[in-house]
TrEMBL record:
Protein name in the entry: Glutathione-dependent peroxiredoxin
Boundaries of every Thioredoxin domain copy: 2-168
Active-site feature positions: C55
Gene3D superfamilies cross-referenced by the UniProt entry: Glutaredoxin
Length: 169
């Protein structure tokens, strides 16, 4: 399992783009995690699934609402990772109004999530293998803080906790 001091695992996430530009076509585009995090401070949070109750009502909105505060604390980007395809993440981004605040990155086959060791088996609930709920602060690809939730909880991976850690960095 990934821990503080580790480098993010290599991998590719997918991001749905609404407009063409900067080498990105409309639709799903690959995001190389190492290239995208190089030289930046990134606030990453991951969750079990798009459009799920806690994720939609609390987790994503907290990061959207505090995006300017993260920027003021020296965070270059905020990433949301979920084991969903890029099309679902794009629809959820529109629903949550994340444009300009949070990059919604899909890990459709859970390959990246497996590489972090932060999987959550929700097969019994009909959802298959998903991501555990967590947040982390990453500087130049290295994990500086990591907040992993116990199953079914939402207590330490929220925007406020990670923002306090970003301010302390």
């Amino acid at each position: 399992m990934i821990k503080v001091g580790d480098k993010l695992p290599a991998g590719t996430l997918m991001e749905y783009s609404e407009v063409e530009g900067e080498g990105c076509s409309i639709g799903p585009n690959p995001v190389d995690v190492h290239k995208a995090s190089a030289g930046k401070t990134i606030a990453i949070f991951a969750l079990p699934g798009a459009f799920t109750p806690t994720c939609s009502a609390k987790h994503v909105p907290g990061f959207v609402q505090q995006a300017a505060d993260f920027k003021a604390a020296g965070v270059d980007e905020i990433w949301c990772i979920s084991v969903n395809d890029a099309f679902v993440m794009g629809a959820w981004a529109r629903d949550q109004k994340t444009a300009g605040a949070v990059r919604m990155l899909g890990d459709g086959s859970a390959e990246y999530t497996k590489a972090t060791g932060l999987t959550l088996d929700l097969t019994a609930r009909g959802m298959g293998l998903r991501s555990n709920r967590y947040s982390m602060l990453v500087k130049d690809g290295v994990v500086k803080s990591l907040n992993i939730e116990a199953p079914g909880k939402f207590e330490v991976s929220d925007a406020g906790t990670l923002l306090a850690q970003a301010k302390a960095l």
